[in-house]
Design a protein that fits this description.
Chain lengths: ~180, ~475
Amino acid sequence: MILIASLARAAGRGQVVALVDALDRFDPRMAHDAGLTLEHVLWVRGASITAELMRPVRLEDVVRRAVRAFDLILRAGGFGLVALDLGDVPARAVRALPITTWLRLAHVNEGRPTAALVLAETPGARSARGVSISAQAEPVWTGTSPQSHRFAGMRLKDRVSPQTERDRVSPQRAIRDPVS
Amino acid sequence: MPLFTCLVADGALETLARSCSPRVELHGPNAVMLDTSGLARVAGPPDVVAREIVHLASAQGLTIRLATAGTRTAAWLLAHAHAGITLVPNGKEATTLAGLAVGWLGALVDLDRPAPGCSRAASAEAYRERFAIFERWGLRTLGDIAALKRADLGARMGPVGVRLHQAACGEDAGPLVPSAAVQPFVDRLALEWPIEGLEPLSFVLARQCEQLSARLAQADRGAVIITTRLRLVTKDTHTRTLHLPAPLTDPRVWRTLILLDLESHPPAAAIDVVELELDVTPASILQGSLLAQTLPSNEDVTTLVARLGALVGETRVGVPRLVDTCDARVIAMGPFHVRPELRRGHVASVCPSVPGDDCAAPAGDVAATPTERPRLAFRRFRIPMAVRVIVARGVPVRVMGAGHGFEGGAVVARAGPWRTSGAWWMLDRSAWNRDEWDVALARGGIYRLARQRATGIWEVEGLFD
């Protein structure tokens, strides 16, 4: 939800955006319906494998490739927003990355007008200058009768706020921006 | 004395013209103007030269109209007006043209360069207006126009009238401007010793790319297709073709792209001969804006896409495309490039119609309020997970994983079924017919389930984010 909204906002400003989709779960049709201009999006698809079915070694390789693609795009420059979607990747696979990974990425993006966005289940991109944002959402169902009952979407519960490293809450979805 | 020959035919004349004279002015594919001034010393008088050209044309299967005159204008008008060969003695251009109807002056639109800020269509329209005036004046032939005073015609009709009078007298408005021959951009290097591996090859490619780049810069061209031919020690030829999204001129980018491509598709043996061939197009010149936001350059995008393609696969990098189908699972990708309108800054900033999105909010603010409208985002499993579902009274009440990591759980809320089907007329496996449910599980998460109606198999298609 936050990922698509961020991409749509940047693309709507006429910026070129990139999405590194680690597990290939981006749905173009629904993103288009949500207001994302698809022509502005560079989409890098990872392995089309369900994380639950993947062996740990394979999963770590997928994450490493995604981070490498994220790194390449940041180095190329010129993008308004570069997003790395690790949303469905188990936290252990993200934590398996060397801590220097995030420092290196922050250094690459230093001084550039590019927003780097990392989306994960738990805050994993620990960077001194990064900002972690934690958000919780609740489902919204509409309709009273069984025929009209439908899932309308997710609504953020509260105003989200930057989060420090010590405030990590595992069930929450967190965003990490290596460069503030 | 200058001597010009105009050829008109229904076929490609450039090769024929270049075989007769080094100074050739192209006017589209079917008409050329040659400077045949010096051919008298080589081939003979103009009539002999004309017959030789006609013979050459017939050998190539072309039937041409040819006119030779002391001015380009006279040769052009006569070649269009008369079939076969027309030879005009020096100084007799006006006399020869005198009998032509006024309407033949319309052919000048293709000969003369349009005035600055004026298109060919506008010139043709201006000519037609003058022809109508000539008709009202009772002028029927070019001789009638030539008999008028040029100054008077200029006073009444302006520069167009002067040009028409010049043409009626067989005079030129400008010199012949030779068109440069299209030269192939090929560089071939036979190696003294065969090389193996891409690292030594990169040095060879760097040298070749530099040389080709220098030639391209002289011709003001950019490469759009790079063809690499590697002749191997096994006498086979390893050929790779790169299609570039935009004309590129940077030799380092070429080399990087070629090497990245060869990393993915390496030659089977050591390399004897390296040949690079470029398909070129006029180089793009773009004035950047100091105020517009920075965008990745064509070179950067091309290199980036090639690097990403080498990392994750060429088919997994690009721009998402919508497919005209009701099957929401179908996706498509296209080649990624930055649209030219974006570079020119012509794309106005638009706020996406995201439900609940506030355009006035500062950039990067993801703040939400409890009153915000819900947003729908979906994470789709490209390979759906098969699950077992317990159904009670026609609705799913419990989802259980079928031997994999998906835990499942009791269904606490549901919506559906949404029945979709299509492509039943196709003979392949693209047909689908299923009922979709959106379910919330007690352990958290909202999933989309699909039941294949033909088989009764339940699958998890993805989860809502």
